[in-house]
Amino acid sequence: MSESKLPVATIPALRFAFDRSLVIAFSCIILMLLGGALYSREFLSPEYLLQQLQISAFLGIIASGAMMVILIGHIDLSIPWTVTLGAMMATAVAGWFGETGNLLAIPVGVFCGAMVGLLNGLGVAYLRLPSMIFTLGMNAVVQGLMVLHTGGFAPQDHATDAMHFLAVGRPVFGIPNALLIWVVVGALTIFLLTRTAFGRRVYAVGNREAAAYLSGVNTNAVIIWCFVLSGAAAAFAGVLLAGYSTKAYQAMGDPYLLPAIAAVVLGGTNILGGRGNYLGTIAGVILITLLQSILAVMQMPEAGRQIIYGVVILAMLLAYGRGDIDRK
Amino acid sequence: MSDAAPILEMKHVSKRYGGIAALNEVDFVAYPGEIHAVLGENGAGKSTLIKIAAGVTDPSDGEVFVDGRRVNFRNPTEAMAAGVVCVFQELSLLPDLTVADNLSIVSPPLRGGLIDSAGQRQRARELLASIGCEDVHPLELVRDLPLSRRQMVEIAKALGKKPKLLILDEATSALTAADVERVYAIIRKLRSEGVGILYVSHRMHEIEALADVATVFRNGRRIETFRKGERSVSAIVQMMIGRELTHHYPDKPAPKPAEPVALSAKNLSWGAQLRDISLDIRKGEIVGLGGLDGQGQRSLLLALFGVLKGVSGTVEIVGKPHRLSGPRSAMRASLPLALIPEDRKTEGLMLPMNIRDNISLASLSRFQKGLRLDGGKEHSAVERIIDSLKIKISDLAAAVSTLSGGNQQKVVLAKWLMTDPGIILLNDPTRGIDVGTKQEVYQLLRDLADKGVAVLFYSTDYAELIGCCDRVLVMYNGSIARELEGQHLNERTIIETALNVDDKEQAA
Amino acid sequence: MNDLRHRIHHNGGLLAAIGLFIVMFIIYVSNHPVGLTAAVATTASNKAVLLALVAMAQTLPVLTRGLDLSVGMVFILANCLASVLVVGTIGEGFLGIAIVLGAGALAGFINGAIIVWGRLQPIITTLATGAVYYGIALYVRPGPGGDVQSDIADFATGQLFGVIPTALVVLLAIVLIVWLPYRNSVLGRAAYAVGSNEQAAYMSGVPVQRAKLLAYTLAGFLAAIGGLMLTFNTYSGEASAPIAGTYTLNSIAAVVIGGTSLFGGWGSAIGSIFGAFVLRTIEDLLFVFDLDPLWQPLFQGVVLLAAVSLGALRVLRIRNRLELFA
Q: Chain C within 8 Å of B88 (Cβ-Cβ)?
C-alpha cells in the first residue's frame, strides 16, 4: 500500500472551494426537486415549496447558531436539549405568569438558551475543555434539569398564541412567518460575519487562536459570544417548534443535532473552523429538509431513510473533496 | 572525490505549482564524500529541490538518479529506503512520543513481531551518545525537551538511518554553539566515510566552515556551482540576490542626547527562565538581545507583552506603571507595544486567510463605524502599508499562505505597524527569510527608531545584532549577563559573554 | 529509578483513573445492602464491560486525533445482527459470532477508508456512517426481539469457577490479545505518531494511512464485541437510537476520564476501561444511595460535567498563555 502525497497547494484554491460546494449543493437541490417532480407534480407547486421552506426555517435558525460555533473550530453538542429547554421554559413561563407570562414566554425561552450557551462558552474559553465533551456534559445537565422540571413541577406545556402565530402564521402575502424569521436571522448572521469586526475575529479565532490572541483579539470573548448565539438560536428554534406543534415535549430537539451539523458542513463550512459562508449553510439546510421530505413522501421505511440520509451526506462531501484533489 | 559516481543527480528537473515554476530545468549533481552547500534566497527553489530528493513531492518534469539508479519516490519512506535521509527545518519529531520511540519510529528492533522496547532504548542510548547528547534520557518525551535538544535528536534520528545522502535543511538554526561544533564534527566524519551531504543554511559562516562545493539557486534556476574558495562571500551574496548590495546594514546614527525612557523593567523574574531582569529602552533606540539560544530571551519578550502568567517585578512605560496582563493591555499602553512573534506560521499569521484580513486584524477597532467595519477605509489603509513595506502580492484577497517566507514576515510587520506602536519587540524576525528581505527589515527598524520608536530586537545571528543595534544585552541562564555598546559591541565580546567565559578576563 | 520516574510520568492519567475507580468502588461496595458477592460483582461487571468495550473502541481513533461517533451505532448493529445470527447450536453460534465481529470490523474499515482515501473529517464521516449503520440495524431488526444462543450467552455473562465474572475475563483477554500487542506493534505506535503530529509522522516515513485504517477497523471490531456482549445480557436485539447515542457519548467521556487526550497521541485503552468503570459506578452509587429517580438524570449530568471539568486543572499549571491554544 502506498502513502500518497500530502496536499501541498490546496490553500490557494479555497475561494473556489466555496463556490464549488455551493454549486454542488444548489445543483442537488434542483435535482431533488426535478426528481421529486417526476414522482409527483406537487413537488414544484408553490404551496409545497413554501411548506418546505417553512419547515427548513427551524433547522435554518438552529444551523445559524451551530455555524458560529463551528466557525471558531468548536462544536455545540448541547443543541438538542437547548432546543427543548427553550420550548419548555417558554411554555412554562406562559403558564406561571398568565398575561405577563404570555409576553415574557419568548424572551425567557431565548434567554435560557443563551445562558446555556454562556456556560458552554465559559467552560470552553476559560476552562479550556474540549467543546465536544463540555457541551455534551451540558446537554446531559440540561436534560436532567428538564426531567426534573416537567416531573417535579408539571408546568404548562402548550404554546402561547404568539408562539403559534410566529411558527405557522402567514399574514404577509401567504409567506410563512417562520420563513420570514429565518430570513431576518440569516440576514443578521451574514451582517455579523461579513460586515463587522466581530465576524472577522470569528474567522481569525477559527483559523489560529494563538495568532489571534497575540494580535490583541479577546479570543475568550469571541468564543463565549459564539456559544451564546448558538444557545439562543437553538432555544429560539425550540420556541418556534413548540408553536408549530402547539406544545413542548421531552426530547423534541433530538432530531435536530445531526441535521444542523450536516447542513453547515454540506454548505462548505470547514468542520475544523475558520472557513465557511452563510450562503452555503442556507443551501445545506434546504438540501437536508428536501431530502427528509422526499424520503417521507416516498414512504420509505425508517431504516432506508437513515441509510439514504447517511449515504447522500457522504457522497456530497466526497464530491466536494474530490474537487480539491483534482485541482492539485 | 569528483571522479566517483554521483550519489544524486538531477537532469532537467522542473516543479510547477499551479502555473508558477518553483524549479525550472535544473541540473544538479552531488557526489559521495562531499559537503555540498545549497544556497539561495527563500523561494529560490532550494526547498523544492530537497523535497524532490527526499520524496516529499515529485517533479513535474525531468529525471532523478540516486546512486546511478533512476528513481521516482512516491513518499519519504521510499527515499529513505534508497538511502536519502533528510533533516527537515520544520522538525519531524513526534512530540508525544519518547525519544527512544522517535529514534526508531520507522524500523524498530522487533521481538516476536512486536517492538522490542529494551532494544529500542539501547539503540537510542547509542545514537544519542554518538552525537554527544548523553544528557537526554531515552524515555523522555520529545515535547519536554528544549528546542535545541530536539534538533539534536532529529539529527540523531537521521544518522540512525545510515544515510548515503544526508540532507540538512537549516538543521542547526536552534543549536547552541557547542552543539553546532559537534554537528560539524559529525558531518565531517560522515564525509570521510563517503556519505554525500547536502547542506542548506542561510548562515554564510557555516557554509564557509563546512562546504566543499556550493551551488547557488535563484528564481528556481541553478545559477552556479563552484568549489570552496573559488568565490568570495560578496560574490556569492551577489549571485543569490542578483543585484548589487552597497551596505549590509543601515548606518547607525551618531549618539544623540538622551531621549526619555520608553520602557523600563525592574527585577523581572519568571520561574527558572527569567531571573531578576532590569532594563531600560529609550525612545529611538534599537536594543538587541543576544546570547545562546534558550537563555530566556524569548520568555523576556513574551513577559513584556503580558503573555506569561506569574511574572514578578515591575514594568513602567514612559514612567507609568504597566500591568502585564496580556496583549490587549500591552496594545493599550501609553506607548503601545507590538510583538513580532517567534513562529510566524502559528503565532503571527492565519495562513489560509487573505492578506487584508491578516494585516488589519490587530487594528480592526479603528475601522469600526458604529457596528460596521468601514471596508473602504480599511482597504486604503492596508494598501498604503503594503506599498510602504514593498510587500509583493498579486491580490489583496489572496491567502497569506501563497506568499514567500519573507513576504509573510512583512505581512506580520505590516499588521503591527498599522497599530502605530511606540515599542516594538521582535523575536528573531529574520530567521529563515531571504537576504534581500533581511536588508529591508534592518532599514525598517532603523527608520522606525529615527521616528522615536523603541525597539527590542532578539536575534540568533550575532552579525545582525552588531550591525543593527545601538546596544546589545547578552543573556545567560535567564539573566542579563552583560550590556555591550560602542566598540565593545563586536562578535568576540558577544560570544565570550554568551558562553559566560571567564569574568575576570572581561573585567581586565 | 530514572526509568520508573519517566514511566509514572507517562501514565499519570491512567493511574488517576484507576485511583478514582477504586475509591468509588469502595464507597459503592461498603454501602451496598448485600456487600460484594459474586452475584453483585457479576451484575456490575456485565454492565460495566459493555461500556468498557465501546470506550476501548473509541480510544483507538481518538489516539490518531480522530473520533468515531459511530461506535454506538456499530455496537447496536452488532447487537441486532447477533440476535439474528448467533442462534442454533453452539457451533452455529460461534459462526454467527465470527460474522458479527467481521461485520463490525468492516463497518470500522469503511469509516477508516472514507477518512483516509476520501479525506473527510472523522467527526462528520462517522456521523454519516453512523446513520447508515443504524439504518442497517433497523433493517435487520425493525422491532425489538430475536434470540441468542443461550449456552454461549449464559457462559459469557456468568462466572468462571463460581467467583470470577466471565465478562471481566473476556475483557482481560481482549486487553492481552488485542490491545497490548496493538500498542506494541509498529502500526499501533504509528497511530500514536499520527495523533501526535501527522505531518511529522508522514515526513518520518510512518505509514500514516495504514495506521488510521487499522485504528478505525479495530474500533469497529471492539464495538462489535461490545454489541455481542450486550446481546448475551439481554437475549435479544433492539435498534435503539437512544442507546446507541448514550454509548457513543459515554464512550467519549470514559476516554477522557481515562486520561487519553482528545487531541491525539496520548493515552491508552486501559485508561478508557477504568474511565468506563468510573462512569458505571456513578450510576450504581445513585442506586445504592436511593436517589429520587427524578433527580437522577440531573445528577448524572452534573457528575459527567464535573468529571470532564477535571481536565481544566491543566489550565492552572499553564504559565505561558500561548500553551492554552495548543
A: yes
Instruction: Give the per-residue pLDDT at B246.
Output: 46
Contact status of C199 with chain B (Cβ, < 8 Å) = yes
Domain carrying residue C137 = 2-310
What pLDDT shows up at residue B280?
Answer: 93
Is residue A94 pLDDT above 80, yes or no?
A: yes
- Percent of chain B having pLDDT more than 70? 93
B80 interaction partners in chain C (CB closer than 8 Å):
205
HSE toward the beta carbon, residue B31, CA cutoff 13 A = 14
Give the CATH number, domain containing residue C71: 1.10.3470
Cα distances (Å, whole numbers) of residue C62 to C109, C117, C315: 15, 18, 21
From the list A123, A141, A317, the residue facing C298 with the nearest CB is A141
Residue pair B50/B86 in contact (Cβ under 8 Å)? The answer is: yes
pTM of the predicted structure, to 2 decimals: 0.82
Only one residue has cell 539501547, namely B122
| A19 band by pLDDT with thresholds 50, 70 and 90 | low
B361, B369, B403, B409: best mutation site toward chain A, by most A Cβ within 10 Å? Answer: B361
What is the rounded CA–CA span in Å between residue C325 and residue A209? 6
How large is the ipTM? 0.85
Closest-CA distance, C311 to chain A, in angstroms, reads 7
- Residue B391: which region, alpha, beta or left (left: phi > 0; alpha: psi -120 to 50)? beta
* pLDDT < 70 positions in chain C: 1, 326
In a domain, C321, yes or no: no
Q: How far apart are alpha carbons C37 and B215 in whole angstroms?
A: 79
CATH topology assigned to domain B261-336+421-507:
Rossmann fold (3.40.50)
Neighbours of chain A (3+ CB pairs under 8 A): B, C
Q: What average pLDDT does range B117-124 have in this prediction?
A: 92
Cross-strand bridge partners of residue B35: B197
In 3D, which of C54, C49, C216, C63 has the Cα closest to residue C129? Answer: C216
Average pLDDT over residues A24-32: 86
What residues of A are in contact with residue B74 (Cβ under 8 Å)? 2-5
In this complex, the residue of C114, C300, C322 whose CB is nearest that of residue A210 is C322
Look at residue C273 and tell me if it is in a domain. yes
Number of structural domains in chain C: 1
Task: Tell me how many residue pairs between chain B and chain C have CB atoms under 8 A apart.
Answer: 102
Residue with cell 452455529: C92
The nearest CA of chain A is from the CA of C102 a distance in Å of 20
Q: How confident is the model at residue B180, as a pLDDT? A: 84
Q: Dump pLDDT digits (tens) for A228-277.
A: 999 999 999 999 999 998 888 888 998 898 899 989 988 888 888 888 99
**B327/chain A closest Cα distance in angstroms:** 5
Task: State residue B23's pLDDT score.
Answer: 87
For B188, residues 6+ apart whose C-beta sits below 8 A from its C-beta are B35, B210
**pLDDT, tens digit (0-9, with 9 covering 90-100), for B183-223:** 888 899 999 999 999 998 766 777 788 889 999 888 788 98
Cα–Cα distance for residue pair C193/C206, rounded to 1 Å: 8
Determine which of A128, A205, A214 to mutate to test the interface with B (most B C-beta atoms within 10 Å): A214
Do C309 and A123 count as a contact with CB atoms less than 8 A apart? yes
Cα–Cα–Cα angle for C184, B121, C207, nearest 5°?
Answer: 45
- Burial of residue A174, with CB atoms counted within 10 A of its CB: 0-12 exposed, 13-18 middle, 19 or more buried: exposed
Residues of chain B with CATH 3.40.50.300: 8-241, 261-336+421-507
Per domain, the residue ranges of chain A are: 56-283
Q: Could you please state the CATH topology (level 3) that the domain comprising B8-241 is classified under.
A: Rossmann fold (3.40.50)
CA distance linking residue A267 with residue A18, whole number of Å: 8
Q: Give the closest-approach CA distance of C197 to chain A in angstroms.
A: 13
Chain A, chain C: beta-carbon pairs less than 8 Å apart? 170
For residue C303, the one-letter residue type is: V
- pLDDT computed for residue A233 by the predictor: 97
